[in-house]
Structure formats: structure tokens, C-alpha cells
Amino acid sequence: MKNWLKPSLLVFFSFLMLLVLAACGGGEGMQKVKVGEVTRSIFYAPLYVAIENGYFEEEGLEIDLSTIPGGDKTMTALLSDGIDVALVGSETSIYVAAQGANDPIKNFAQLTQTDGTFLVSREPIENFTWDMLKDSTFLGQRKGGMPQMVGEFVLKQHGIDPHGDLELIQNIDFANISTAFASGTGDFVQLFEPTASIFEEEGVGYIVASFGTESGHVPYTVFMAKDSFMNASPETVEAFTRAIKKAQDFVYSSSAEEVANAISPYFEDTEVDLIATVVDRYRAQESFAKDPILDEEEWNNLQNIMDEAGELPERIPYEELVDTTFAEKVTD
């Protein structure tokens, strides 16, 4: 009995070891990519679709996604190799380049192509016109960020001096803007979704205009990486971009409900019906980019908006900070 047990146990444990090795081998060849998003938003729906629908996995990529609030913090994480890829406003790459970075940040895949904020009024307005903002208190976004710059750009396009024709509040942190408005601060506020729609449902505020439709196409949120990372891992960057293109196709070819169901795990406190409403709204104004290519006209529009806001440190040529090589490869 004793002599029979030892070889049997040996065979048994050898079999177990083979199972363990086989299980571990299932992950072999998967390339881990650390991605940092500047905030969690339905505005970034294609990213979550790419994860949940397995498009990254199909490309051999394992995505480690983290939310890093604030463009400055996201860029710090990218520059210090805390993340490989950043999803953030493309203006941040200009700020970094203007400081003389030795390892430039390159924009390689565009996710959103319009501003994602909406103008919300405290009272319902049946026939809104932009001049209604004159002499009002406007709760705007953080100074230097894309929402604030686009907000001021749109106001000026409608003949409103943001710093002369109304009381502009810009000293409230991004995370607290909606709370401040709900508490009674401001006649108008500039908000992202789903907060704008939630406020409308609750009677806290009412959407009266879209900054996205007013400002035109800009590379509002873009995937970017250090030049050194892209040079060292071109296959990874191409695979990443291809997964994003698959997700962009899904977002525009599927129903809003299908998209909402796909991304609902990222918004557990938001009803799926509301997510679908927001997806539909962003899709109707083509806020989600239809392909990952960032074109030169969009880049120039971005710098014009920054310049108008007094936030452009210097004009950076398109070819210096934009690399469309991978986006063009995956877009037919």
C-alpha cells in the first residue's frame, strides 16, 4: 500500500501542475498596457466598449485602467512612467512641449471630437438665446482646461465678453461644480453628462445649449504616449488603436441601449436608460470620433481656441505632436 501510494500521488500532483501551467499559459503573449483616464465619463464610451466587448483582448492586450483626476496629474503619471497611455485633452501635450520636454508626448488616437459639456440653466427656458447670459452669474470650468477655454470661446462667438458681460466663477474644483450649482450658486453652469441629464430629471437645472455643437470639431480627448514608448512598442500602439477603432464602429452601428448595456459596469450608480439617453445625445452631435485620426484642421482649431482664451504658450506644428501612422493603418 505504501509503495503504491507514493507513485500515485506523484502522478496526481504532476497532473495538477500541468493544469496550473496550462492555466498560466492562457495569459502568455498578452501585453499589459497601463492606461490613465482623466475622469470617468460616458463621454469616453468607446474606451469602455473596447474593454467590455473584448476588443483589446482580441488584439493581445490586457488593459490596466485607472482614473487620475485632473489633466496635470494624468500627465505627471505619463511622464513618470506610472502609466503607458493617457486619455486626456490634447492641450496638455502642448503645455508639456512648451516646457521643453526631452521625450515629447505624441497624440496617436482621437476618442472625442467635440466639447462634451452642456449649458444648464437654473430655470427652464423655452426659447433660449445666448445673450440671456449677459448680467447673469455663470459657473464655469477650471481655468486653463479645455471645457473652460471652449466655454469662453463660444461665449465670444456670440458677442459675450466672459469677463465683462457676466459674473464668471472659475475658482471651484471640477468635482465640486455640480454640487455648488445644486446648492444655489450661479444662474447657469457648464456641465458634463450624465450630471446635466440627472439635474434635468431632478428639476435642479435644464439643458438649454450644447458647447460641443457650437465650438466645432477639436481633438478634445485623445490617447497619447511618450515618443519613446511608441518607438519601443509600435505593435502595441497599433493593436491598441485597432481596438479603439472597433469600439468606435460599435458605438455608431449599435443602438444606444446596446452601447449603454456594454458600458453600464463603469456607471453602477446610473440607470441604464439614462446612460442610453446620454449616449444618444453625444452620438447625435458626433462627439464620439468616428475614427481615431486626429486631422490638422482640428489641431489648428484647438490652438485657435487656446489662443483666444490666452492659454496658448506657443503654436506647436501638427507634425511635431500628432502621429497618425497607427490610426491610418487601422482605418479603411
Radius of gyration: 23 Å
- Overall shape: globular
What count of helical segments does DSSP give? 16
Number of domains: 2
Separation of the first and last Cα atoms: 69 Å
Strand segment tally: 10
By secondary-structure content and strand pairing, the structural class works out as alpha/beta
Strand content: 15-25%
Instruction: Say which CATH homologous superfamily of the largest domain is assigned.
Output: Periplasmic binding protein-like II
Summarize the structure in words.
With 332 residues, the protein is α/β, with parallel strands linked by helices. It has 2 domains: 31-114 and 218-330, Periplasmic binding protein-like II (D-Maltodextrin-Binding Protein, domain 2); 117-215, 3-Layer(aba) Sandwich (D-Maltodextrin-Binding Protein, domain 2). It has 16 helices and 10 strands. The protein has helices at residues 2-25, 45-52, 55-58, 71-79, 91-98, 146-157, 177-182, 195-202, 211-215, 227-232, 234-253, 256-263, 272-284, 296-308, 318-321, 325-330, and strands at residues 31-37, 61-67, 85-88, 105-112, 117-121, 137-139, 167-169, 188-192, 206-210, 221-226. A 5-stranded mixed β-sheet has the order 2-1-3-10-4, with helices on both faces. A 5-stranded mixed β-sheet has the order 7-6-8-5-9. Helix 6 (146-157) links the parallel strand 6 (137-139) and strand 7 (167-169). Helix 2 (45-52) packs across helix 11 and helix 12 packs across helix 13. The chain is globular, with a radius of gyration of 23 Å.
